[in-house]
C-alpha cells in the first residue's frame, strides 16, 4: 500500500492534467450518446460522472476510463420505444449491473484473456481510424451528426464517407481556422524546445487549445461575424437556473416496469454488450499501459456492475469501459486511477457550476484533440509491426479494422475474434500444451518450461501464472523443448518484462528462439 501511495504521489500532477483532458473529450461524447439513445440529455453526463468516480474507485485498473458508450445507444433507443419511458429502462440498467456483478463472481472476466492480440490491435487501430474519419466533418464545421458515434451509418441517414463528402458543401471557415490553430497548439506543445519550460510540461495541451479556441471564436464574433460559430457548433450542455433545477436533471427508475418480461431481455442485451466492450477495453488498455500492469477482469466486471446499478438509480445511461477515453487518458499522462476519478469529479463540478462557460467550447477544437488521439492509435508503424508478424496475425488485424469501419465495434469484435480463432484452431489442433513448473528448494527459483507447442489457447494459463508470481521472486522461462510458440506468447513475455521490473522480479528467458514460429511453418509446408 505504501508503494502504491508513493507511485500515485509521483504521478499526481500528470494524473490531474490527464483527468482534465479526458473530461474535455468525454463531455461532448456523453451528450452525443444521450441524443443517439433518445434519452434525456443529462443521462449521458450522469453516466460519465458515475463511470469516472464510482467505477474508477471500485476497479483495480490504473488507466481505464468508463462512461456511456455508443455501442449500447441503439439498445437504449429501442428499449425506450418498447417500454414506453426512460424511467422503465433505468430498471433494466440496474438489473444489468446485478448480472455483471454475478458474472464477476462467476469469474467470467477471464474470457478477456482469450481475446487474440491481433484482434485487440485491430480494434485499437480501427477506433483510431473511425475517430479521425468521424471528426473530419466537425473539424470543418459540419455538426449534424452527434458526437461519439462508432457505427458506419450515421443517425441522419448518411454514413462515414458520405458524411465527409457533405463537408465540401457546408464548410465553415471559422471552424476550419479553429481546428488548424488547435492542431498547431496540440502538436507544437510536445516540441522538446517547449518541454524545457515547466509550464508546457504540466499545463495540458488540450486545455490550451480549448481556451484559445474560445477566445478565437469570441474574436470572430466581435471582428469577423462571417467566421463566428453559433450555438449549433458549440458544446450543448443543459443549464439549470438553480441547484434545485440541477437536481431535477436526475431521474428515478420506475420499478413498476419490473413486471414486464421485456425488461429482463433488455437487461441481458445491455449486460452482453457492456461486458464485452468493457473486457475488450480493459485488455486493450493494459496493452497501452506503459507499466504493463494487469487488470483483474473479474473485478472490472464487478466495478462496471456497481456503476450501472448506481447510474440506473439516478437516471444515467448504461456504463462501459471506453477505449477512446482510456487512450486519451494514457496519451495525456494518466498513470493511476486518480486521473479517472478526477475526470468524473471535474465533470460533476463543472456541469453544476459553470455550464454556460462550457457551452462556449467549439466542437472543432475537440475534434482536433480527437485527431491526435486517433492518430496515436492507428499510426503507420503499428501496421508495419503487425505485417511483419505474418499473415496469420495481419489478416485478423486488417479484417477487424475493416469490419469495425463498415459496421460497428461489437460486430468487429465478434468477426475479428472468429477469424483469429479460425487460424489458431486450423494451425494448432495436433498437439496439446502442458505447463511444467519446477521450483528449486534452495533459493525458491521457479522454472516455467514451455512444451513443444505453445499456442494462443494457452494464453490465459500463462498470463494467470505470471500474474500470481510474488514480488521479488526469481523466474526462468525455458524454451528448450519448444518447437512452436505463438506470437501472443512472445508478447506476453515481453509485457511481463516491464511488470517484472515494477514488481522487482528477476526474470530470465533461456533457449527461446524468436524465429521458432517461422521455422515451424517452413517445415510444415
Task: Please explain how this structure is put together.
With 525 residues, the protein is mainly alpha-helical. It folds into three domains: 2-367, no CATH class; 379-427, no CATH class; 436-524, STAS domain (Transcription Regulator spoIIAA), CATH 3.30.750. 64% of the residues lie in helices and 5% in strands. The chain is built from 25 helices and eight strands. The strands form three sheets. A four-stranded mixed β-sheet has the order 3-4-6-8, with helices on one face. It has a two-stranded antiparallel ribbon with strand order 1-2. A two-stranded parallel ribbon has the order 5-7. The termini are far apart. The relative contact order is 0.18. The model is unreliable at 429-435 (pLDDT under 50). It is found in: Membrane. This is SLC26A/SulP transporter domain-containing protein. Residues 12-400 form the SLC26A/SulP transporter domain. Keywords: Membrane, Transmembrane, Transmembrane helix. It comes from Salegentibacter salarius.
Amino acid at each position: 500500500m505504501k508503494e502504491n501511495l508513493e507511485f500515485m504521489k509521483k504521478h499526481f500532477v500528470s494524473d490531474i492534467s490527464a483527468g482534465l483532458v479526458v473530461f474535455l473529450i468525454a463531455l461532448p461524447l456523453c451528450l452525443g450518446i444521450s441524443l443517439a439513445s433518445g434519452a434525456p440529455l443529462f443521462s449521458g453526463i450522469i453516466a460519465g460522472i458515475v463511470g469516472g468516480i464510482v467505477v474508477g474507485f471500485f476497479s483495480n485498473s490504473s488507466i481505464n476510463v468508463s462512461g456511456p458508450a455508443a455501442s449500447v445507444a441503439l439498445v437504449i433507443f429501442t428499449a425506450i420505444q418498447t417500454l414506453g419511458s426512460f424511467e422503465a429502462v433505468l430498471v433494466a440498467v440496474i438489473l444489468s449491473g446485478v448480472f455483471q456483478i454475478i458474472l464477476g463472481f462467476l469469474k467470467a472476466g477471464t474470457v478477456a484473456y482469450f481475446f487474440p492480440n491481433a484482434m485487440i490491435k485491430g480494434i485499437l487501430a480501427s477506433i483510431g481510424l473511425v475517430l479521425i474519419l468521424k471528426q473530419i466533418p466537425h473539424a470543418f464545421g459540419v455538426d449534424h451528426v452527434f458526437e461519439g458515434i462508432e457505427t458506419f451509418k450515421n443517425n441522419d441517414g448518411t454514413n462515414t464517407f458520405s458524411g465527409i463528402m457533405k463537408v465540401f458543401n457546408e464548410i465553415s471557415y471559422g471552424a476550419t481556422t479553429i481546428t488548424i490553430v488547435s492542431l498547431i497548439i496540440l502538436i507544437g506543445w510536445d516540441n522538446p524546445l517547449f518541454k524545457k519550460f515547466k509550464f508546457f510540461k504540466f499545463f495540458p495541451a488540450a486545455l490550451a487549445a480549448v481556451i484559445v479556441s474560445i477566445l478565437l471564436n469570441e474574436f470572430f464574433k466581435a471582428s469577423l461575424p462571417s467566421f463566428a460559430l453559433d450555438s449549433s457548433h458549440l458544446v450543448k450542455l443543459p443549464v439549470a437556473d438553480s441547484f434545485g433545477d440541477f437536481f431535477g436533471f436526475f431521474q428515478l427508475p420506475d420499478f413498476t416496469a419490473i413486471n414486464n418480461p421485456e425488461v429482463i431481455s433488455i437487461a441481458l442485451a445491455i449486460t452482453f454488450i457492456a461486458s464485452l466492450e468493457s473486457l475488450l477495453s480493459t485488455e486493450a488498455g493494459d496493452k497501452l499501459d506503459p507499466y504493463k500492469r494487469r487488470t483483474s477482469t473479474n473485478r472490472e466486471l464487478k466495478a462496471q456492475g456497481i456503476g450501472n446499478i448506481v447510474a440506473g438509480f439516478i437516471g444515467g445511461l448504461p456504463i462501459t469501459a471506453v477505449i477512446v477515453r482510456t487512450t486519451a487518458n494514457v496519451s495525456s499522462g494518466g498513470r493511476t486511477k486518480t486521473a479517472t476519478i478526477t475526470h468524473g469529479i471535474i465533470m460533476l463540478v463543472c456541469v453544476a457550476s459553470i455550464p454556460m462557460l462550457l457551452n462556449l467550447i467549439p466542437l472543432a477544437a475537440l475534434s482536433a484533440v480527437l485527431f491526435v488521439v486517433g492518430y496515436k492509435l492507428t499510426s503507420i508503424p503499428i501496421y508495419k509491426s503487425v505485417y511483419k508478424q505474418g499473415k496469420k496475425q495481419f489478416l485478423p488485424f486488417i479484417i477487424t479494422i475493416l469490419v469495425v469501419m463498415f459496421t460497428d465495434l461489437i460486430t468487429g469484435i465478434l468477426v475479428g475474434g472468429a477469424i483469429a480463432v479460425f487460424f489458431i484452431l486450423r494451425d494448432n489442433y495436433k498437439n496439446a500444451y502442458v505447463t511444467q513448473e519446477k521450483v528449486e528448494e534452495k533459493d525458491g527459483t521457479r522454472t516455467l518450461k514451455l512444451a513443444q507447442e505453445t499456442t494462443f489457447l494457452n494464453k490465459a494459463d500463462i498470463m494467470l501464472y505470471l500474474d500470481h508470481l510474488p514480488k521479488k521472486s526469481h523466474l526462468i522461462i525455458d524454451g528448450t523443448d519448444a518447437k512452436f510458440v505463438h506470437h501472443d506468447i512472445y508478447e506476453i513475455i515481453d509485457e511481463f518484462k516491464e511488470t517484472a521490473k515494477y514488481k522487482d522480479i528477476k526474470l530470465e528467458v533461456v533457449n527461446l528462439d524468436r524465429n521458432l514460429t517461422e521455422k515451424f511453418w517452413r517445415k510444415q509446408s
